[in-house]
Every structure is written in structure tokens, then in C-alpha cells.
Design brief:
Elements: E1 3-7, H1 11-22, E2 26-30, H2 37-45, E3 49-51, H3 57-60, E4 65-68, H4 77-84, E5 88-90, H5 92-97, E6 103-108, H6 113-126, E7 131-135, H7 141-147, E8 152-156, H8 159-163, E9 172-175, H9 190-198, E10 209-213, H10 217-225, E11 231-235, E12 244-249, E13 252-257, E14 260-265, H11 274-289, H12 294-303, E15 312-317, E16 320-324, H13 331-340, E17 345-349, H14 362-368, E18 369-374, H15 380-386, E19 392-395, H16 399-408, E20 415-418, H17 431-446
Parallel strand pairs: 1-2, 1-4, 2-3, 4-5, 6-8, 6-9, 7-8, 9-10, 10-11, 16-20, 17-18, 17-20, 18-19
Antiparallel strand pairs: 12-13, 13-14, 15-16
Helix pairs in contact: 1-7, 6-11, 6-12, 16-17
InterPro entries: Mur-like_cat_sf, Mur_ligase_C, Mur_ligase_C_dom_sf, Mur_ligase_cen, MurD
GO biological process, one term: regulation of cell shape
Organism: Psychroflexus torquis (strain ATCC 700755 / CIP 106069 / ACAM 623)
Length: 447
């Protein structure tokens, strides 16, 4: 019996352990931190052996195969040593893909991937297909492969998940954007991060498709210099007319797949903004490749409600609007958020800096932001970047404090925007926890 060791006991790790047991591996899970009670209970129910609060290196070295959770860096000494000893280390996405023949739509990008993933899932679900979402969203891909049998998986894939890919091959890959992100994990080397993103297409063949953002110079530049076996389908907010393309003409989305043309008015999209038009083009292109009816796609795009924690409108208190963009964990995502603001804005920003260059936001901050509330342990870079163009910059100790201070700086018809441009791990469990606390703090204000 092959020995499978899973490193990391979160959603993906526990899912991998369950799939491993299902496929007759001898499974052991090891987590450096304390396991959450719900994950510990799951492992105990499945009778899977585990340890928490540290790795026993001698046990790790017994592995025939290691599935490593995406949060664990390849640069850790223990990981380097295990690789050097010849042990194969893969991601949960790679491991799960070995045990399913389902059709896979893989979606990655610095920004937009969650929205596109949800859009594709929404269309396929409305079309009556057997489909599930997994990867960076929803429940573990591996656990779903073990416990259920879907014909289609829509996978949101982070660069960390793609780092551990060897044979993983999506039939349709979507690349939404590449901007500097997670550079702390990639040795401050943007090229390493770009390479990680493009691993989504490395095993694709001429029978597969790569749908990509032609308006993204980083993506276009990489494609000009590298060979891709998949059929390329660009999407763009400008006008192009190649046999395989998605583009805008006369305020309409046009998707051209050889002799087949799909059109939809941009005005009919439920979510607004240029970035969401691109997202809709990418998702609709994937749906057309899967032969989804045109009317189903149109109806789905008209009814799509957006994604929680991404420019989520939370209503008003005394004529002050509150917008939850907790999912904005990098500069580019916050750029979209600030660009969409039409009211004078009190901006809540900060967290764990991933190598941010805040200066890219200066023109928008200068135009849109009347005050800044810092939400992080170390806010010096924010002060240094914006003190010359924003008169009021204050610190807060927690989300309730941040929201109260932000509201106190507003007048009628202003807006409070949570768009942190940073990871959440200094004060929160994850961006969802940060967004939920933002909503709770607003409810507290209403009392």
C-alpha cells in the first residue's frame, strides 16, 4: 500500500486525505498549526491518522507521495529536503485530476478569476449540466471527486495551486489577467509568477482551448514568446474579427467561433464596468465551446448576481453607501474598485502587504478619496504613499473600529469602500472573514 502524506489540514488538504483513503492509500495528514474543529472531526470520522501543531519530519520522509496544500511555500527547508530525497510532491488539484474523467474548465488570473468561475458555473447550471465549482472556491475538488460524480468541474485556480501541477489538463483554460501579486512568495520575481499562471495550459493539446485577455500586455507578451498547443481564443474590449475571438462592436459582445456568431448587448449584463464585460466575454466563450444554447447564456448573464466580497453593494446608512470589496487582495483589484467609485470615498485599506506599489493608485486616490482608514498592523507604506494627496489618514485596531471611524468621516452622499489591496492574515482568517466582519460592523452601526 502506497504511503500518502498530506501536508496542510485545511479544505484542500482534508479533501485530498479523504480521496487518498478512498483510493486505498495509507494516509497520514500533518499540519504545522492547530486544525480547525470541523476538519479534525472530519478526519476522525474517516479514521484518518493525523498530527497537528508541527511536522514530524521522520514521518514525512516515509511518504511515497506528498500532497501539499497551496498555502505551504516551496521554499520551506522541510519541503526542499523532501524533494531532494526524491519524494514526489503535488497539489490537491493535480492529485484529484488523476481520478476523474470529467470535463474541466480551469480559470486563473490575478483578478477576475472568481467572477468568471461563478459566471461559468451559473451558465452551466442554468443549462441543466451536471456541474460543480471547486479549487479556490467552494468545497475541495479532491473530496468532490471522492464523494460525488459530476460531469463538469469549473475550477478557480490560484498560482499556488498551479505550482504543484504536473499532468493536470483542463479542456478549457481561461486566463483573465496577470498583474504583480504574491511577489513575496515568488522571490520578488514577476516572471516566476507569470510562469506559474501559464502552467494552466502546459499540458493542453490541439484539442483544447485557451481563452485569454488580449487587452493584458503581460499575457500577450508571453504568448508571443512561447508556444502553446491549445487553440487560442482572445477576448478584448476592442474590435477584432478573427475566426476564434470575443470582442466588442457597437456596444455588443460578439463571440465568433469559426462560422458561429453569438451576440449580446453589453447593456443587458447584470454586472457593470469594463472588467465585468471582459469577464462575461470569457465565461460566455467557454459556454459556447460547450455548445450551451445562446438564449441560456443571455438569460444567465442577465440574472448573474455577482460575487460576494467583490464590489458588493451593502446599502446605505443616512445617505452613505457601503461597498464590500474585501476580495481585493492586490493593487490591480483595488484599482478597479476605486475606478468604479462615483461618490467621494472614505477608503478602508491595509493588511499583509504582498510587495504592493501603491503609487499606481495615486491618480485615482487623488480624484476619488477624501479620507483613508488603515486596517493593518503595519501601515507605514500607506502613509508614505498617500499623505501628500489625502489630508486625513487614520489607523484602526479592528474592523468595528475601522467602520465606525470611516462612517464618522463621511457626509451625505459619500461612500465607504473596503478594498484592502492586501492579504488579510494579520487580523483575519481570510478575505471572507474580513468581508463578513465588515458587514457585521455595518449592522452594528445601524443599531
Amino acid at each position: 500500500m502506497e504511503k500518502l502524506i498530506v501536508m496542510g489540514g485545511g479544505e484542500s488538504g482534508v479533501g485530498a486525505a479523504i480521496l487518498g483513503k478512498d483510493k486505498s492509500y495509507d494516509v497520514f495528514l500533518s499540519d504545522f498549526s492547530k486544525l480547525k474543529p470541523k476538519f479534525k472531526a472530519k478526519l476522525q470520522k474517516e479514521e484518518i491518522d493525523f498530527e497537528e501543531g508541527g511536522h514530524t519530519v521522520s514521518r514525512l520522509q516515509e511518504a511515497d507521495l506528498i500532497v501539499k496544500s497551496p498555502g505551504i511555500s516551496d521554499d520551506l527547508e522541510v519541503i526542499k529536503n523532501l524533494r531532494e530525497s526524491g519524494i514526489k510532491i503535488v497539489s490537491e488539484i493535480e492529485f484529484a485530476s488523476w481520478f476523474t474523467g470529467a470535463n474541466i474548465i480551469g480559470i486563473t488570473g490575478s483578478n477576475g478569476k472568481t467572477t468568471v468561475t461563478n459566471m461559468v458555473y451559473h451558465i452551466l447550471k442554468n443549462a441543466g449540466l451536471s456541474v460543480s465549482m471547486a479549487g479556490n472556491v467552494g468545497f475541495s475538488f479532491a473530496e468532490q471527486v471522492a464523494r460525488q460524480s459530476f460531469h463538469n468541474y469549473v475550477l478557480e485556480l490560484s498560482s499556488f495551486q498551479l505550482d504543484g501541477v504536473e499532468d493536470f489538463r483542463p479542456h478549457i483554460a481561461i486566463l483573465t489577467s496577470i498583474t504583480p501579486d504574491h511577489l513575496d512568495r515568488y522571490h520578488d520575481n514577476f516572471q516566476e509568477y507569470i510562469q506559474a499562471k501559464f502552467k494552466i495550459t502546459k499540458n493542453q493539446t490541439k484539442d483544447d482551448f485557451l481563452i485569454y485577455n488580449k487587452d493584458d500586455k503581460v499575457i500577450v507578451n508571453w504568448l508571443e514568446k512561447n508556444t502553446v498547443k491549445a487553440q487560442l481564443i482572445p477576448f478584448t474590449n476592442t474590435t477584432i474579427m478573427t475566426d476564434l475571438s470575443a470582442f466588442i462592436e457597437n456596444n455588443k459582445i460578439n463571440i465568433k467561433l469559426n462560422h458561429n456568431l453569438f451576440t449580446m448587448s453589453v447593456n443587458d449584463l447584470s454586472v457593470k464596468g469594463d472588467h465585468n464585460t471582459r469577464n462575461a466575454m470569457a465565461a460566455s466563450t467557454a459556454a459556447r465551446l460547450l455548445k450551451i444554447r445562446k438564449q441560456t447564456i443571455r438569460e444567465s448573464m442577465e440574472s448573474f448576481q455577482g460575487v460576494e466580497h467583490r464590489l458588493e453593494q451593502l446599502g446605505k446608512i443616512n445617505k452613505v453607501a457601503f461597498i464590500n470589496d474585501s476580495k481585493a487582495t492586490n493593487i490591480n483589484a483595488t484599482f478597479y474598485a476605486l475606478d468604479s467609485m462615483t461618490a467621494p470615498t472614505v477608503w478602508i485599506v491595509g493588511g499583509v502587504d504582498k510587495g504592493n506599489v501603491y503609487e499606481d493608485l495615486l491618480p485615482l486616490v487623488n480624484e476619488k478619496v477624501k479620507a483613508i482608514v488603515c486596517l493593518g498592523i503595519d501601515n507605514q507604506k500607506i502613509y508614505n504613499s498617500f499623505s501628500n494627496c489625502v489630508d486625513t489618514i487614520i489607523e484602526s485596531s479592528n474592523m468595528t473600529d475601522a467602520v465606525a471611524k470611516a462612517y464618522g468621516l463621511t457626509e451625505d452622499n459619500d461612500a465607504v469602500l473596503l478594498s484592502p489591496a492586501c492579504a488579510s492574515f494579520d487580523l483575519f482568517e481570510n478575505y471572507e472573514d474580513r468581508g463578513r466582519q465588515f458587514k457585521e460592523a455595518i449592522q452594528y452601526l445601524k443599531k
